[in-house]
Specification:
Elements (H helix, E strand, L loop, with lengths): L7 E7 L20 H9 L5 H6 L1 H7 L16 E5 L8 H8 L17 H11 L4 E5 L2 H15 L3 E4 L4 E7 L5 H14 L8 E8 L6 E2 L4 E4 L7 H7 L3 E5 L2 H4 L7 E3 L4 H14 L3 E7 L1 H7 L4 H18 L7 E6 L18 E6 L8 E5 L3 H10 L12 H4 L3
Helix pairs in contact: 1-12, 5-7, 10-12, 11-12
């Protein structure tokens, strides 16, 4: 195989599927976090036969923390390693941007005690109503706490978390989803400069008191990347850049030629398989959200384990659709250990598993110093010159 044999990269970001604390985890209160290994222990072992064949068990064993139920194999079908986050922060935007070649100099601002008057007052004036909440809280807990008052008053619920987010929750019968998106756009315009949070998030919900449920009509309004990402470079090279899941939100619609805003893992993988079958050249990048949204933040290791086992089957099934010259990359953006007391993201290494016909099997990639190494590698595989951060490991991947 020659270097030119890679025509397309399918990049699957398993949102929050970390694999062990990062070297600076102590700075984030995340010592001991290990999303994959701790989840496996909590449920008595994971059944991930396809990921095991690709080398996930070998990866874990190489760093001294085996994943219960996922054994190493003699001849892994993929190249495998892990990456350490370099940018400060442990949120979705930071992780995805670093994968795409941007290493941040400083973290996005966070508001553990709520947003200051210079943010809330102009926001209330712009939307012509007061707000409820304005504190750090779990999304499910705050709608249970304030949902009834929200229905009575019509005031939107504003809250945040340990991440750099300004979240707005509203019952779909009280504030219709299009209006909720509109007021999120207003918040996004206010939250700039010093208060430039990573994401403004619309959090629609339905139901009655005691049975409020968030819907899949969530929408993220991300701050725009400060410079070109991998997506921009691939698009400018005249290739396809297809975002699936919340990719369009994370990159503020930058660098995409096509997008499908799916809301769960099953729909996302079905969409990815459809795009793969169509053929083409360039990049398909998908965010698999269920791990983080449904289970990590809710401290539900059993649900997390089930989602991992389901995605194992979906990734196996994707192989049937792959074409000559396709390369699949499996990684994550951060951790969200469902077994630790907190409900926030965790500062962890992330796995990187690379396979496809042009890729050398069984190559151990070690620990990469930045998630940005992956973005540089993908650009290199597609033969696109860039000035992205990160060091390419293309030479370790391709068959000679």
């Amino acid at each position: 195989m020659t270097y030119g044999s890679v025509k397309r990269v399918i990049l699957l970001v398993l949102d929050s599927v970390g694999i062990g604390e990062a070297p600076d985890a102590h700075l984030y209160g995340d010592v001991g976090s290990d999303t994959l290994c701790n989840t496996a222990k909590a449920v008595g072992g994971l059944r991930l036969p396809y990921l095991a064949l690709l080398g996930l068990g070998n990866l874990a064993e190489a760093f001294g923390e085996p994943i219960l139920g996922v054994q190493p194999v003699l001849a892994p079908l993929a190249a495998y390693g892990r990456m350490a986050p370099k940018s400060p922060g442990k949120d979705t935007t930071t992780g995805h941007w670093e994968i795409a070649g941007i290493v941040l100099d400083k973290p996005f601002p966070v508001y553990p005690h709520g947003f200051p008057p210079e943010v809330i007052e102009p926001f209330e004036e712009a939307i012509s109503t007061r707000i409820l909440g304005n504190k750090s809280a779990s999304g499910t807990e705050i709608i249970n706490e304030l949902g009834e008052e929200h229905i009575r008053t019509g005031y939107p619920i504003v809250y945040t978390s340990a991440d750099s987010v300004f979240q707005i929750a509203a019952h779909e019968d009280i504030i219709p989803v299009p209006r909720l998106y509109e007021i999120c756009g207003i918040a996004r315009s206010i939250l700039a400069g010093e208060h430039g949070v990573g994401r403004v998030i619309a959090r629609p919900f339905i139901g009655v008191k005691g049975k409020f449920t968030r819907t899949e009509r969530r929408k993220d309004f991300s701050i725009k990347p400060p410079r070109k990402t991998l997506l921009d470079y691939v698009k400018e090279a005249g290739m396809d850049v297809i975002g699936v899941g919340k990719i369009e939100d994370i990159f503020a619609f930058r660098g995409l030629t096509q997008s499908d805003h799916t809301g769960n893992n099953k729909d996302t993988m079905e969409s990815v398989a459809g795009f793969v079958k169509e053929g083409g050249r360039g990049l398909i990048i998908a965010n698999l959200i269920d791990f983080d949204m449904l289970f990590g933040h809710r401290n539900n290791p059993q649900g997390y384990a089930c989602a991992l086992e389901e995605i194992d089957e979906m990734i196996r099934d994707l192989e049937e659709s792959l074409k000559e010259g396709d390369v699949v990359v499996i990684t994550a953006d951060h951790g969200c250990d469902p077994t630790t007391p907190g409900t926030d993201h965790s500062r962890e290494h992330v796995p990187v598993i690379v396979y496809g016909r042009p890729i050398e099997q069984g190559v151990f990639l070690g620990t990469r110093g930045s998630l940005a190494d992956l973005g540089s590698t993908i650009a290199d595989l597609l033969r696109i010159p860039t000035d992205l951060a990160g060091v390419s490991f293309k030479s370790e991947l391709l068959k000679k």
